[in-house]
Amino acid sequence: MTGNRRMSLTAELVALCFREERDLGPDPHRPLLSDAEFDALAERISRESKQQPLWIFAYGSLIWKPDFDAVESRRAIAQGWHRSFCLRLNRWRGTPEQPGLMMALDRGGRCAGVAYRLPDDDRLGQIRRLLRREIGSCEGVKAIRWITVETDQGYVRALVFWAGPKGEHVSLKLPLSAVARVLARACGHIGSCAEYLYLTVLHLDQHGIRDRNLWQLQELVACEIQSIHRSPS
C-alpha cells in the first residue's frame, strides 16, 4: 500500500456487511430519462466535446468498474473539487429502511483521480454506455459537467459525473463519523456501501493516490463494523 500502511478496512470486514436484498426497481420519486432523452443527451455531450479527444475524469467506481472502452489513462488532478459521500440512496447500495451514501464531487479542495480517453471511432456509443450507467434519472443530468484537470502531460478538458449535485437527495458537509456509521450498515441488492468504499480506496492506492479523507473514513468504517459484529463477552 502507498506509504507502507495497510488499510484497516479489509475484505473480511467488508464481507460482514453483505446481506441479500431484493431489487426494488426504479425509485418512483426520481423520474427516469426516456430513450429519446438519453439519445438527445448523448448527442449534446458529443457536440460539446467539439471533436476534441474525449476524456472522462474518474474519482470513484469508474476507476474500478469503468464499463467503457479507454485507449489511454493518466493520473489527473481536479482543482476546486473534492470527494464527498453526499448522495443518499435507498436503492442499489441501500434500502428505504437503511439508506446508503454514495460519492459525488463537491466544491472546494483538490481531487486526485484518473482521466480516461475514449476512442474517437465510437464516441456516441461510449457516451451512451456511460449515461446508462451513471445517469438514470432527470435529477442526474444537472450533475454532469465539463471540468479542466491537470495531468503529467498537461491540462485536458474532461467530462465528470455527479459534480456539484443539488436536490433533496443530497446531504453535504456530513461529518466523517456520521458517514462511517451509514457506510458500515447500508447494503442493497448490488452490494454494500462498505464494499464501495473499500474498492475505491484500494484501487486509488494502486494508482498511487491516497485521499486523506477516504483513508480516515476507511479506518472509521472498519471500527464501526468491528463494533457491530463484536461478540458479547
TrEMBL record:
GO cellular component, one term: cytoplasm
Molecular function per GO: glutathione specific gamma-glutamylcyclotransferase activity
Keyword presence, Lyase: yes
Main enzyme class: lyase
EC number: 4.3.2.7
Any one GO BP annotation for this protein: glutathione catabolic process
Keyword Lyase: yes
Keyword set, alphabetical order: Lyase
PANTHER family: CATION TRANSPORT PROTEIN CHAC-RELATED (PTHR12192), GLUTATHIONE-SPECIFIC GAMMA-GLUTAMYLCYCLOTRANSFERASE 2 (PTHR12192:SF2)
Protein name: glutathione-specific gamma-glutamylcyclotransferase
